[in-house]
Specification:
The chain has helices at about 5-10, 15-45, 60-80, 85-105, 110-130, 135. It is mainly α. It has one domain (about 15-45, about 55-135). The longest helix is centred in the first third of the chain and has 30 residues, at about 15-45.
Length: about 140
Protein backbone atom coordinates (compact mmCIF):
# COMPACT_ATOMS: atom_id res chain seq x y z
CA UNK A 1 0.00 0.00 0.00
CA UNK A 2 1.51 3.31 -1.08
CA UNK A 3 1.39 6.57 0.82
CA UNK A 4 -1.26 7.89 -1.59
CA UNK A 5 -3.44 4.82 -0.95
CA UNK A 6 -3.16 5.27 2.81
CA UNK A 7 -3.99 8.97 2.53
CA UNK A 8 -7.04 8.17 0.37
CA UNK A 9 -8.24 5.63 2.95
CA UNK A 10 -7.86 8.07 5.83
CA UNK A 11 -10.87 10.29 6.32
CA UNK A 12 -10.29 13.90 7.20
CA UNK A 13 -11.56 14.59 10.68
CA UNK A 14 -14.20 17.19 11.38
CA UNK A 15 -11.72 18.97 13.64
CA UNK A 16 -9.23 19.33 10.78
CA UNK A 17 -11.89 20.65 8.41
CA UNK A 18 -13.14 23.04 11.09
CA UNK A 19 -9.62 24.28 11.84
CA UNK A 20 -8.90 25.01 8.18
CA UNK A 21 -12.29 26.69 7.70
CA UNK A 22 -11.73 28.78 10.81
CA UNK A 23 -8.23 29.77 9.71
CA UNK A 24 -9.54 30.67 6.24
CA UNK A 25 -12.22 32.92 7.72
CA UNK A 26 -9.67 34.55 10.03
CA UNK A 27 -7.26 35.10 7.13
CA UNK A 28 -9.99 36.85 5.17
CA UNK A 29 -10.82 39.03 8.19
CA UNK A 30 -7.12 39.78 8.83
CA UNK A 31 -6.66 40.64 5.15
CA UNK A 32 -9.57 43.08 5.29
CA UNK A 33 -8.22 44.59 8.53
CA UNK A 34 -4.77 45.01 6.97
CA UNK A 35 -6.24 46.61 3.85
CA UNK A 36 -8.28 49.06 5.96
CA UNK A 37 -5.23 49.84 8.08
CA UNK A 38 -3.09 50.39 4.99
CA UNK A 39 -5.61 52.65 3.29
CA UNK A 40 -6.02 54.64 6.52
CA UNK A 41 -2.28 55.18 6.81
CA UNK A 42 -1.91 56.15 3.16
CA UNK A 43 -4.93 58.47 2.99
CA UNK A 44 -4.73 60.16 6.39
CA UNK A 45 -1.23 60.16 7.85
CA UNK A 46 -2.48 62.06 10.92
CA UNK A 47 -4.81 59.22 11.96
CA UNK A 48 -1.94 57.41 13.64
CA UNK A 49 -0.38 58.82 16.80
CA UNK A 50 3.30 59.43 16.27
CA UNK A 51 5.27 58.66 19.40
CA UNK A 52 8.57 60.30 20.16
CA UNK A 53 11.69 58.45 21.21
CA UNK A 54 10.48 55.13 19.81
CA UNK A 55 13.29 52.83 18.76
CA UNK A 56 11.69 52.10 15.40
CA UNK A 57 10.82 55.48 13.88
CA UNK A 58 8.67 54.49 10.92
CA UNK A 59 7.18 56.46 8.06
CA UNK A 60 3.46 55.78 8.50
CA UNK A 61 2.67 56.18 4.80
CA UNK A 62 5.31 53.60 3.82
CA UNK A 63 3.96 51.19 6.41
CA UNK A 64 0.49 51.87 5.04
CA UNK A 65 1.60 50.51 1.67
CA UNK A 66 3.14 47.49 3.40
CA UNK A 67 -0.14 46.82 5.24
CA UNK A 68 -2.16 47.26 2.06
CA UNK A 69 -0.05 44.85 0.00
CA UNK A 70 0.17 42.35 2.85
CA UNK A 71 -3.60 42.56 3.34
CA UNK A 72 -4.31 41.73 -0.30
CA UNK A 73 -1.95 38.74 -0.21
CA UNK A 74 -3.44 37.51 3.09
CA UNK A 75 -6.95 37.87 1.66
CA UNK A 76 -5.98 35.78 -1.38
CA UNK A 77 -4.41 33.12 0.85
CA UNK A 78 -7.63 33.01 2.88
CA UNK A 79 -9.64 32.32 -0.27
CA UNK A 80 -7.07 29.68 -1.22
CA UNK A 81 -7.65 28.00 2.14
CA UNK A 82 -11.40 28.01 1.53
CA UNK A 83 -10.74 26.33 -1.81
CA UNK A 84 -8.79 23.59 0.00
CA UNK A 85 -5.38 24.30 -1.49
CA UNK A 86 -2.49 22.82 0.51
CA UNK A 87 -0.11 25.57 -0.65
CA UNK A 88 -2.48 28.10 0.90
CA UNK A 89 -2.12 26.51 4.34
CA UNK A 90 1.65 26.81 4.33
CA UNK A 91 1.43 30.30 2.83
CA UNK A 92 -1.14 31.32 5.46
CA UNK A 93 1.16 30.27 8.29
CA UNK A 94 4.04 32.28 6.83
CA UNK A 95 1.82 35.30 6.16
CA UNK A 96 0.36 35.17 9.68
CA UNK A 97 3.91 35.24 11.08
CA UNK A 98 4.80 38.17 8.81
CA UNK A 99 1.58 40.00 9.71
CA UNK A 100 2.28 39.58 13.43
CA UNK A 101 5.78 41.03 13.02
CA UNK A 102 4.54 43.95 10.90
CA UNK A 103 1.83 44.74 13.46
CA UNK A 104 4.34 44.51 16.30
CA UNK A 105 6.12 47.52 14.80
CA UNK A 106 2.81 49.40 14.60
CA UNK A 107 1.91 48.96 18.31
CA UNK A 108 3.03 52.49 19.33
CA UNK A 109 1.08 54.03 16.46
CA UNK A 110 -2.19 52.11 16.75
CA UNK A 111 -1.94 49.80 19.80
CA UNK A 112 -5.40 48.22 20.12
CA UNK A 113 -5.75 47.48 16.41
CA UNK A 114 -2.22 46.06 16.18
CA UNK A 115 -2.68 43.81 19.21
CA UNK A 116 -6.02 42.59 17.85
CA UNK A 117 -4.47 41.60 14.53
CA UNK A 118 -1.51 39.94 16.28
CA UNK A 119 -3.97 37.89 18.35
CA UNK A 120 -5.85 36.83 15.21
CA UNK A 121 -2.55 35.91 13.53
CA UNK A 122 -1.62 33.69 16.45
CA UNK A 123 -5.05 32.07 16.28
CA UNK A 124 -4.54 31.27 12.58
CA UNK A 125 -1.11 29.77 13.25
CA UNK A 126 -2.57 27.64 16.05
CA UNK A 127 -5.48 26.47 13.89
CA UNK A 128 -3.27 25.48 10.96
CA UNK A 129 -0.50 23.81 12.95
CA UNK A 130 -2.74 21.31 14.70
CA UNK A 131 -1.75 17.72 13.89
CA UNK A 132 -3.12 16.52 10.56
CA UNK A 133 -4.63 19.85 9.49
CA UNK A 134 -2.22 20.99 6.77
CA UNK A 135 -1.42 17.59 5.33
CA UNK A 136 -5.05 16.48 5.27
CA UNK A 137 -6.67 19.69 4.00
CA UNK A 138 -6.50 19.14 0.30
Amino acid sequence: MTTDDRRADTQVSGWAIGAVSFAAAMMIIIGIFEIISGISAIAEDNLYVKTRNYTFDLDVTAWGWIHLILGVVILLAGFGLLAGRTWAAVTAILLAILSAVVNFFMIPYYPFWSLLVIGLDIWVIWALTRPGVVGESG
